[in-house]
Design goal:
Elements lengths: L16 H10 L8 E4 L7 H5 L17 E5 L2 E11 L2 E9 L2 H8 L28
Antiparallel strand pairs: 1-2, 2-3, 3-4
Length: 134
């Protein structure tokens, strides 16, 4: 008692599949998204966080001059260099991440880009202000 089911094939619009897809994406163009730029991360304890004071130094997992990540709703989609534009910070895109790179960053545990933990040493050329602990 098996029945063969035939499915109707939909015709592609004259502009091709891309034209229909573009129209669908335009419907999304007014949806707000949060963009943020991440220059680095670190992990610490609650106790060390409670000890933070004005002038405290927090070392991040990236070297000075390393590219910063552009995040959309918390997921990295690109990397670039931080610039100053009319007295505001900006990001000049230097690399668009593929989806695999972006998903790996979204689930990362805050380690450096190569997967190693941040070094415990003081960053080169950075000194903690007098009377503070780093």
């Amino acid at each position: 008692m098996s029945e063969t089911i035939e499915y109707e094939q939909f015709e592609t619009p004259a502009g091709g599949a891309g034209a229909h897809g573009d129209a669908d994406l335009r419907r999304l163009s007014e949806i707000p998204m949060e963009l943020s730029v991440e220059i680095g991360r670190t992990q610490t304890t609650v106790g060390d966080t409670l000890d933070l004071r004005v002038g405290s130094l927090i070392e991040l997992d990236r070297e000075a001059g390393a590219p910063a990540d552009l995040l959309v709703n918390g997921t990295a989609i690109a990397r670039g260099e931080v610039v100053v534009v009319d007295m505001s910070y900006g990001l000049r895109i230097t690399e668009i991440l593929d989806t695999q790179d972006a998903s790996e960053h979204a689930i990362s545990d805050g380690g450096s880009q190569d997967g190693t933990a941040a070094p415990d040493a003081e960053p080169a050329g950075v000194e903690a202000p007098a009377g503070t602990e780093g």
